[in-house]
Amino acid sequence: MDFPRQLRYVPTLLNGKTIMTEQPKIVLGLPKGSLQESTFNMFKKAGFNIRSGSRSYIPSVDDPEIEARLIRAQEISRYVEQGVLDAGLTGHDWVVENQSDVHEVANLIYAKVGLKPVRWVVAVPNDSPIKEPKDLNGKRIATEAVGLTRQYLEKHGIKAEVEFSWGATEVKAPELVDAIVEITETGSSLRANNLRIMDTVLESTTRFIANKSAWQDDWKRRKIEQIAMLLQGALAAESKVLIKLNVGRESLDRVTELLPGLHAPTVNQLATPDWFSIESVMDEKVVREIIPQLKEAGAEGIIEIPLNKVVP
Which superfamily does CATH assign the domain made up of 23-115+206-237 to? Predict the structure, then answer.
């Protein structure tokens, strides 16, 4: 695939003269398809606004140092390895499937549905006699991840026929194949097609990867590391909120003891004597339990604020 470059020039002072030079930038691969929306949302929280037309694979980014390309996640690691892309986001499963020699920058645990890993699993019809890996000997298996499946079979010393599936893999068992190897987040699609999970082939999360030559370039490495830090901060903030409240001196100790946080709560004295303002970052899932306790302990004016980024 030939990716056209979008050139931009900036004024640069050289030997006392201003000349126009090409602005340094990285070419970044973003997953097109099921991960696209969640990836764009994560970048927005990280501070990058990405816009793409319905038919365009060259989205615009409000950072002149980034050129983005929308590509199927299955292909991104190959283009990163080849240097067509400087960096990209793709699943660990596709890096393994393609056996791509790339540098892993960060593990970004998010998926289409939520913040958790996905699994490639061996699934068989509910009434299938296949109960364990050895029962796959001599069977036919359909999957999009042929390489992963063959590695799994080799690991278990199993000989079976593996065929590539172009889609709708769940409906192929038992009429066309004996088993399938398919990706799942919740297992609901498999259950809907009367399939049960027999074994897990691989657990996968989204990885931020870089071309090894690009990683050796000081400017590109710095830019990639900055993006990774902001993305990790955005993901860390997904499950956290900021709690702000006021409390009198007589209740200060009781309230601060209730507040979990990244470190100790931040306590500032207000202009009113013997009154304090407290801030604390905490897991959102505990807020509904802790707010009534804070109120009972003497807190007032409790505010819950969503966060975009939490960078330790």
Answer: Periplasmic binding protein-like II (3.40.190.10)
pLDDT of residue 75: 96
Helices (H), 11-72: 36-46
* Confidence check: pLDDT of 284 > 90: no
Using CA atoms, how far apart are residues 53 and 58, in angstroms rounded to an integer?
9
- Global pTM value: 0.81
Q: For the chain, what are the domain ranges?
A: 23-115+206-237, 118-203, 240-306
Alpha-carbon distances of 140 from 122, 130, 169, 210, rounded to whole Å: 12, 12, 13, 36
| Angle between helices 36-46 and 218-237 in degrees, nearest 10 | 100
Per the listing, tokens 């590391």 go with: 225
Residues 6+ away with beta carbon under 8 Å from 312: 236, 262
Specify the pairing of strand 60-61 against strand 50-51.
antiparallel
CATH 3.40.190.10 given to domain 118-203: yes
Q: May I ask the CATH architecture of the domain 240-306?
A: 2-Layer Sandwich (3.30)
Q: Which helix (H) or strand (E) holds 215?
A: helix 212-216
* Span 120-141, pLDDT tens digits: 999 999 999 999 999 999 999 9
**Is residue 108 within 8 Å of residue 232, measured between CB atoms?**
yes
User: Which residues is 240 bridged to in the sheet?
Assistant: 283
Read off the tokens for 189: 């699609």
- CATH topology of 23-115+206-237 equal to that of 240-306? no
Q: pLDDT tens digits, residue range 54-107?
A: 667 889 999 999 999 999 999 999 999 999 999 999 999 999 999 999 999 999
